[in-house]
Structure formats: structure tokens, C-alpha cells
Amino acid sequence: MIKKLSQTDTVSDLTNQFVEQLKHTSFSGEIDISFATRVVTSTDNSIYQETPQAVIFPKNANDIQIACALTNKDIFKTLSFGPRGGGTGTNGQSLTPGIMLDLSRHMRNIIEINVEESWVKVEAGVIKDQLNDYLRPFGYFFAPDLSTSNRATVGGMINTDASGQGSLVYGKTSDHILAMDAVLIDGTEFSTNKMPVEQVKALAKENTRVGNLYDTVLNIGLDNRALILEKFPRLNRFLTGYDLENIFNKDLNEFDLGRVLTGSEGSLAVITHAKLNITPIANFKTLINIKYDSFDSALRNSPFLVEARATSVETVDSKVLNLAREDIIWHSVSDLITDVPGKDMQGLNMVEFNGETQEEIDDKVKTLCLRLDELIADQQAGLIGYQLLTDKDDILKIYAMRKKSVGLLGKTASSKKPLAFAEDTAVPPEHLADYIQEFRNLLDSHNLDYGMFGHVDAGVLHVRPALDMADPEQEKLLRVISDEVVKLTAKYGGLMWGEHGKGYRSEYGPNFFGDELFSKLREIKTAFDPNNKLNPGKICTPIASDSELVSVDSQKRAWFDKEIPTNIKSSFDNAMNCNGNGLCFNYDEKSPMCPSYKVTKDRRYSPKGRASLMREWLRLQSNKGVDLLQTENDINKPSSTFTDIKAWFEKLKNSKAKQQGKYDFSHEVKESMDECLACKACTTACPINVDVPTFRSRFLNYYHDVYARPLKDYFVANIEQTAPIMSKFSKVINPILKMNLTKKVIQKQIGYVDTPLLSEPSLTSQVKSKYDFNFDNLKQLSEEEKSKTVLIVQDPFTSFYEAELVVSLITLIEKLNLRPVLLPFKPNGKPQHVKGFLKEFTKTAKTSAEFLNQVSKLNIKMIGLDASLVMCYRDEYKTILNTQRGHFEVLLAHEWLQDQEFHPAKNTNDKNFVLINHCTETTALPNTVNVWKNIFEQSNLILNSVSTGCCGMAGTYGHEAKNLDNSRALYDMSWKPVIEKNQRHIILATGFSCRSQVKRFENFKPRHPIELLAEIL
After folding, report:
1. What is the DSSP pairing of strand 284-292 with strand 347-355?
2. What pLDDT does residue 597 have?
3. I need a surface site. Which of 95, 346, 670, 937 has the fewest CB within 10 A?
4. Count H helices, E strands: the chain?
């Protein structure tokens, strides 16, 4: 019987004892029993939720051995453990109610490479893309290609025997493992590699822990060979659990114990290292995007494409394509998957050929294209067109879109969400179309929506039916569909788990294997883990155990979400909709996605982590009877001075209780939110558009209705009110700010470092009254005169801290023979929003919107320089004012400049420049770099763009003393290499924060493109 809602914020006495004893060993890693960390690791990319008792982050194999050896004590016999890698599994393999061993944070070292023998040795936490980035200069790659390759670890790939695109050619992870090091749950260390059977028999006779393993597996494999070959399907992908078929070679004279570890889902041992064979990179690639009038046509045409000797054949249906069209990813592929005039594209096959020479693939491509032309001309096979791609970057863009499909399928407005539970079925490719038709009939009979994509060359299709797990009837339907799919795959000679493992589908194992062979798997489990302590319930249980296998009916995320009122879930959908795909764990340091996670590797500080914490916080608040929407309404209402004073004293009282150690989960959520840089990369880079800055601001608003704010929050929130006043006294204030005593006082009392200096001379003194705004005068202009006038919307950073940029913009506008007009400064409110002063932000936004709406009636273009504040008009204003960006429109400089006519630059000897773009623009406006390139091209200049992550400043984040180390680490991680590689005078940067960060660490400030253009045109 499954007990629901067993989650608690308490840790058992036994776990606490284990943790305390582990602390007193030579264990060098981290141990975390905080509820926040346990909540964040309670989910993966599946529908399930299981809160661990503790999370251990070992730094090396020795740490794992120490932790496992400690479990030998009789007192700890009942503790269970679960290894975890990237947490990208779709079936809950890495979830555990016991103690989690997370290898992904620290064990990312690549130990050794041998190019001559084509192998590499790595720790289990090494990320797939990290490994390939390392191997690329050597001309090699690690072949299995996963959609989650930028966050999946090698250890996780081994435990699920991952494959992915191109598996017909490259095989699965197990096909690339030469040797492994692992630790049994009792602390016994052992290694695996291929050995002659005679040598294995000698090992098996040894009366040792490892000898017993060899004896058990060897005899089971030999004695049951015929049964094993009968039960294991003849498929490219046949993930079954313990791979007994391949422990021997074809001649049965070579044995590899490691083959039972691959696909074992952490139920036998903890893998610490792997020696992997590596594959030469095929330098020549061609991708053919073949378009169809229906998805069925695409599926039925796939065997013919496989016969064309392609490296891989991938497919997506119209639902995935349409979701991609609505996502930021489509910007990069729209010209690579163009529509066919007069035709409706409902399916797409992506056929890749690659080779070490162009000649190796030319004949294959030519032959296939001739046949495709014939089919299109004869209107056969549903073929409506195709596109040929040979540029490697273009091909990577297509696969990036394909890889994002998993996340995109979760992007639905309905309460019914596409769910992973029967989404990696595998059948012989020749039966795929008929099988899918029956699968579709099954889903259609229940009136379910779904999207499909997959590896048709291997007969693997990913299908995610949309269900609402908060609806008891829908949850029952999940069981019905699961049972039916198991029967359907059996009918077509396939199996339900072709690629993503069993996990909570382990209950179907006995039916698949049969009692006789399944009992042999249980004997193997007994030899490795006799007390059922490693990932219990997954795949099988020890012979003597009466524990049950985990079930598809096990505890799900939705069981907790159901406790949150519907109106609250709807209001916080930017957190609730997170489907766990984990794209925010992207290893790539050049990706703008979530800098706080990149620098800490702590998943509490990721969009998924913060969304998880927010969901739990909403649940706990609801259980306390708190009406959050009413509370928010009360907070934002005008209040009397007496009420404010009373509330202030109450906050001081609560804050004192906090200092004295009174627990409140809100403090753990607050800690996570404090690490957010509010860069908003998650709002577009995440396929679900999880919007951390927005729900973060709301949380802070709630939190500081209960607990007092630090002084620095008021300092930041009021910067737009104080900066205009301070700028008038810059000659007095700047010398004071430069004093060491002042710096120490600001750091100690406010918590800020490296306070920026005010512009000197100020903007007002530089431009005088020449460009002042006069509504009535502008109103009298003719339409032609208005078209030659530009209104500059001021922001606090450029106007008061970088006035020279505003002056450059004025100069540039005049050089374009247009008239610049400087609007009076009106606070934008972005700093207030970042710190959660939502009542104040709403007031500021209304005032600013009223003014800009009035100005917009002049029908004159308005432009701003700072991306963060301009995007605030478009995003936060729309949300807080419940409008479509107000009625006004403020363009960023490049958006306006792209429509202007430029003349060749004359005042420069340099023709090549390097642009480092603001991360807000990179994610929200992905075409920004191309626009700047076109602008420079008109001026006969070349602008080269570079990919970087966050500079580490992000508004005021980098100025907070507690963030200084992380801010510097982020800069060193992504920006410093670019700065050091290029001459300073050719570096351009669009972000105020970015330029400030470079000045802080390099003692020079890159120019904005506007400054360069104003100077040289």
C-alpha cells in the first residue's frame, strides 16, 4: 500500500546520527540536511516527487567509499541511499526517500586522455557536453548524443545506458565503456573491464566480496544463456536493467561485469570513474530536412531513409514544430526549415549523413535527393519538400531546436501538461508507423492531446500525453495508458522502456522477464546489495527481501500541488509550470542561463530550484490558511502612519526571533532568492519560460511584510530618487565616495562595495537646455518634422553615472541629421521591482506610464539606452499595470538605428570591432547582435560578436559585499578571457553593468557601440 503525502520537513534521528558520524570521518565533501536542498532534489524530470532525508555531495571517490563504509554499522542497516547525476531522468531513477549521493556538483574532473589508444578517463559527474568540449581539440567526441547533453552526467548516462541520436551507428553508452571503478554499499571498491572467461572463473573462486559478484553473474549468464537471448528483444535499444545478454562476447570467451552496471539505475553500486572509448569527429556533415503533409507520412517514409545509409533519422511532429515557432529558438532555425508555399507542413524528418571526407557522403546524399525529387514530383509518400544543410553551425541550430522539444512540450496554458511516463517506447523500425497509429488511437480514444518526436531510425518515439495529475480521474488514466502501452509494445515486439530506463515503471519488469529470469536478476541484486539499501524498489529486490517494487502509482508532484488553491497556482504559474526538464542546469559557461547556478553549482540557486522552493512555500502557506492573494492586496494598499509604525515593530520582533534561530522555511527560500541576479535569462531561455525575477519580487514583497528589510534594500530601491539630487553635487560627493573611510562605512553599514561615481560634469551641465522637452512646441511640429525628431528616455544609470553615453547618443542623432530631444527624467521603478517593493513600484510605474502615454500621443519615436529598464517597460509594466506595454513604446537604440541610413565611417583606422552583448538583450532580443552587425556594415565596419555568459554585475548584485566573490568568479569565467584576448579599444559592450564590471576589474571601460559611431561617423 502506497502512503501518500509522506513528505515532512523533519530529518530522522537515524539520519542525523549518520550525518554526525560522517562529519567526524575524513569525508571532504558537503552534507546538507536543509529542507531547501531536500526539496530541490525531491524531483527530477519525471512526474514523481520523493524527498530525501539528506543530500551528500562527495568531492571524490574516497568520499563515496567513506560514506558507504559507514553504512556497515549495525545501527545504519535500515538506511537507504540513492546515487544521483544530472537528475535529467524521466522516470524517477534518481529519486530516493533515503540519503542522496549527488555526484554532479564536484566530481567533474577529466582525469586522463590517451589519443593514440582513443580513450579518456573521467569522474562520474563529468557532463556530456563538458567532455566533448574537452575532446574537440583532439579531434574526438564521446558518441552517445542526448537531448540533455548540456547537463547529463557520464555516471547518469551509464546508469541508464543512454543512447540518443545516431545510435544505429554509434550505439549506446555501454558500447563505449572500457572500464569502470565503483563502490559497493558496504564500501568495497572494485573495478570492471573485459577479461577472458577463464580468468573470471579463477576470480569467481576467490572467497572475497568481489569474487562472489563474479561467481554469481558469470554462472547466471552461462546457465541461462538461451533464456536470456529469448527474452531480450532484438532492438538497437533494449534497456532492460541488468544487461545479461552482453556480459559475454559472441564467442562466450570474454566477460565484462560492467555490463550489468550499465542500465542498473544505481541499484547495484555507485560508479565513481569510467574509462571511455572515444570516436573521431566526422568533419563533413550534411543534414536534409524533409517535410511532409502529415506525421504519419513522415513515419512511414522513415525506413526508406534508414536504408539510404544515413547516420541518423530524427523526427518531430507538427505540435513540436508549432511550439518551436512560438519559442525564442525559432529565431535561429526559421530560414533552415522554411514553409513550402501552398502546403501545410505537419511532419519533419531530419536525416544526417557524416563522414571523414566529403566524398564519403556525396554519393549517399545525391542518391537520396534524386529519389526525394521523384517522390515530390509524383506527389508520393506525403513528401512536400526538403532543404539541404552543410554548414555545421546551421546543423547544430537544428539539433538545438530538436533537443529543446522535450521542454517545449511542457509549455501549455492548460492544467493538463504533457507528461513523461510512456514516452520512450521502442519497437522494430519497420513496425513503427503501424505501432504509432495504434498508440494514437489509444490516446485519441481518451481525448488526449500529445506531441511526438524521436529517433525513427531506432524505432524509438517520445510521446507525452497531456494529463492533469491534480484530477484523480486523470491520474487513474495514467495507470490505464501505462498498462495498455506495455501490452501494445509487446504486440509489436518492443518494450516500454527503450531509452529512459525503468525507474517507477519497475513493476512491469517481472511481466517482461518472466518469473524464472526475473528471479535471476534478484540473485544479482542480492550479490551486490543484499540488504536492499541502494535505490530500493528500482529494477528488482534481493531474493530474501519482501520489499515491493516501486510503482507508476507512486507519490507524484501533483499530490503536493493539489494542496495549493487553484487561484494561487494560476497566479504563480511562472513557478508552478516548471516541468523539471533542467535546461537551467546548462553546463556551458557562455550560456546566459542562470549565472548564480553556474558559479555555485548549487541547484537551490537555479530557476528549477527556485521554482521548486516557491511551489513548496506556496503549499506550506496554504496549509497555514494564508490567503496569499488577499495578503498581497493588503500589503499594496495605502496605509496610515500609525499602521506603518505598528507593522515596523512587528517586523523587528519577527526579525529578532529569526536571529535567535526560530525556524521558518521562508528564510531558506529567501536565501535562494537573494542569489538571483534578476538577469531574466530564464524568462526566455527556459522552454517553459519560468520567470524567477517576477515571482522573486512577489516573494520578497511577502517576506518583508513579516521580516524587516536590510538597509541596502532601501538604498537600492531609492536610487532613482536620490541619483538626480546627488548628481547636482557630484563635485562634492565623488571625492567623499573615493575616501577609504567612506568605502569602509558603506561596506559595513550598507553592505556595498565599489560604489560607482557620479558623472562629472553632469548630464545637465553638458547639454544645458538645448535639448529640453516642450510638449506644446513638439505638438506643433508637422508630421515630417516629427519623423526627424527623436525623444531620448532617460534612465538613472546612463544619465547620472554615464552621462557621456547620453551625450554620444545626442551627437549621433545629430550626425544623422535628426533632432534629439531629452525627455525629463522619470523613475522607471526597476530597482524597486528587483528588491520586491511592489507597492512602490506600482506607484512609480503608473506615474511613468501616464507620462509616457501622454508623450506617445506626439507620434515621435522614443528610445532608451539601458536594456534592463527598457525591457521593464515591456514586461513588468505589462504585468503590474495589466496592460499591453502601456500605450507607449520605447525602443532600444539599436531597434531605432536599424531603420536609419548610415554613411561610411571616416575617422578611424580600425575596421574590426568586437561586441559583447548585454545578457538581457541576448535572451529577450536574440536578433540584437545581427542588427548591430548590419548597422556597422553600412558604415563599412566589421563587428564580430562573441558568446559570453553573465559579467557578474547584473545591476547591484555585484556591488553587494556578500556577492563579491561570486561576481568576480562569474567575470573570470566568461568575460575575462574575451577581454584578455582582444585589444581594449576595439571592445564594445551594450550593458551599463557590464561596462562597470570591466572597469572595476580591468581599469578601463569598454565603449558602447553608440559612443564609437558618434565618434567616427
Report:
1. antiparallel
2. 95
3. 937
4. 50, 28
* Spatial CB neighbours of 200, under 8 Å, sequence gap ≥ 6: 214, 218, 255, 257
For the cut 90, the answer to whether the pLDDT of residue 564 exceeds it is yes
Whole-angstrom distance, CA of residue 591 vs CA of residue 968: 17
Phi, psi of 869 (to 5 degrees): -75, -35
Measure the CA–CA gap between 621 and 1017, rounded to whole angstroms.
59
Could you tell me which of 498, 331, 228 has the C-alpha nearest to residue 924? 331
Q: Say what the pLDDT of residue 656 is.
A: 94
Indicate the Cα dihedral angle 224, 229, 232, 234, nearest 10°. 170
Query: Which band of pLDDT confidence, cut at 50, 70 and 90, is reported for residue 356?
Result: confident
Q: What is the mean pLDDT of residues 451-469?
A: 84
Which residue is associated with the grid cell 506600482?
A: 842
Strands of 855-910 (E only): list them: 861-864, 890-892
* Domain identity same for 136 and 275: yes
pLDDT band at residue 9 under the 50/70/90 scheme: low
Is residue 345 domain-shared with residue 392, that is, in the same domain?
A: yes
Establish if 464 belongs to a structural domain.
yes
| Per-residue pLDDT tens digits for 127-168 | 999 999 999 999 999 998 888 899 999 999 999 999 877 777
Torsion angle defined by CA atoms of residues 703, 705, 707 and 708, in that order, rounded to the nearest 10 degrees: 120
Please report the beta strands in 194-302, taking only residues with DSSP state E, as ranges in sequence order.
195-196, 254-255, 270-277, 279-280, 284-292
Residue at which a domain ends, from 708, 743, 772: 708
Contacts 24+ apart (CB under 8 A), 710-717: 710/751, 711/749, 711/750, 711/751, 712/750, 712/751, 712/752, 712/960, 713/835, 713/836, 713/837, 715/750, 715/752, 716/831, 716/834, 716/835, 716/956, 717/831, 717/832, 717/835, 717/837, 717/840
- Residue 761: is the preceding peptide bond cis (ω within 30°)? yes
Report residue 613 as a C-alpha cell: 522552493
Instruction: Out of 53-67, 310-324, 673-687, 728-742, pick the least confident.
Output: 310-324
57 vs 255: CA distance, rounded Å:
33
Alpha-carbon distance of 675 to 386, in angstroms, equals 47
**What mean pLDDT, rounded, does the chain reach?**
92
Query: Whole-angstrom Cα distance, residue 177 to residue 486?
Result: 30
Cβ(266)–Cβ(159) below 8 Å: yes
Domain membership of residue 117 (yes or no) is: yes
User: Is the model's pLDDT at 89 over the cut of 60?
Assistant: yes
Return the C-alpha torsion angle 195, 198, 200, 205, nearest 10.
-160
Quote the cell numbers at residue 390: 552543410
Spatial separation of the C-alpha atoms in residues 317 and 311, rounded to whole Å: 21
CB 82 within 8 A of CB 265: no
Tell the residue number behind the cell numbers 496549509, with chain if given. 623
Supply the CATH number for residue 445's domain: 3.30.70.2740
222 within domain boundaries: yes
Q: Torsion-angle region of residue 159: left (phi > 0), alpha (psi -120 to 50) or beta?
A: alpha
Residue that is written with C-alpha cell 538497437 in the block: 236
CA distances for 931 relative to 904, 921, 948, angstroms: 17, 12, 18
pLDDT given at position 886: 54
User: How many C-beta neighbours within 10 Å does residue 576 have?
Assistant: 19
299 and 253 together in one domain:
no
| Residue 401, domain extent | 282-405
Grid coordinates given for 170:
554509434
Instruction: Give me the half-sphere count of Cα atoms (radius 13 Å) on the Cβ side of residue 693.
Output: 24
CA atoms within 13 A on the CB side of 995: 20
Domain tally, the chain: 7
136 found inside a domain: yes
CA-wise closest residue to 205 among 218, 192, 191: 218
